[in-house]
Protein: Glutamine synthetase
Amino acid sequence: MAQLSDLVNLDLTDSTTKIIAEYIWIGGSGMDIRSKARTLAGPVDDPKKLPKWNYDGSSTGQAPGEDSEVILYPQAIFKDPFRRGNNILVMCDAYTPAGEPIPTNKRCAAAKIFSNPKVEKEVPWYGIEQEYTLLQKDVNWPLGWPQGGFPGPQGPYYCGIGADKAFGRDIVDAHYKACLYAGINISGINGEVMPGQWEFQVGPAVGISAGDELWVARYILERITEIAGVVVSFDPKPIPGDWNGAGAHCNYSTKSMREEGGYEVIKKAIEKMGLRHKEHIVAYGDGNERRLTGRHETADINTFIWGVANRGASIRVGRDTEKEGKGYFEDRRPASNMDPYVVTSMIAETTILWNKS
Structure:
């Protein structure tokens, strides 16, 4: 008699050419990831060759009940680490039947910015540091923390090892390998300052692909925590008090910044970022005011400062960039629950397209 795990891991390649495509989209809250699967006649490696699909937007907070159909447009394909074989994950964005992007579709506006010839010429690179917190499912309290109590103070947990310092490493490592399998350009992982908090990095990725890859990496993480019976939180300050919050620092460079003389380009770009500080803060995630307090490696939310190797700044420039006279900068303001389509495109818009005059 076959066990459930045998059927879940069943290899279909010997019995059929058909594949399963898991269509992924972002729900009405802007952070709830949804997905459903369909059967396709055979392998597909180009999103343009995938059929559009629809879903009930009234059940995701994205359409009224009397006109509930929302259309999914396939945009990016990844290998499916759960079903494996030729099966795929498909990142989609959502439109009305008339072809208009729905209000929660932030990818469409981002794609327009990234397709601007001035932006394309600069080949913007992104590296996003996604922090998150693992929670015990039934009590909504960080993994490894005593129920209703607190662990020892911060200090030994950042990049720590050992059963009393690192909580959930099996989930983190499974996610790391699953992202590599999927074709996501995940570049690393580490334990964070608060126990039960971790980080993974996606990038360097060019333009719109940074958003696609981060959203699918989040999807894979949620699926793995589902299997593990653990909850993942992207709240920017999950535990009040003397505990670090969770961010999504965005490392950024353009072709001009990466070439000789790039440091001057970087400084001019940072000046523009400072002039639009308030607009960026509004777009950088909900609840960020609980995180950006001027403590715990953050700048105050109402203040814009930048510096070299300063982790208490809004924007940090690395020592290597200063020394070599070219490179990248790190925007430390985005919250862990930010929308990468919004953040990456806004940084490109401000530094490449926006004119302060």
User: Anything to note?
Assistant: The two ends are 73 Å apart (CA to CA). The chain has ten helices and 14 strands.
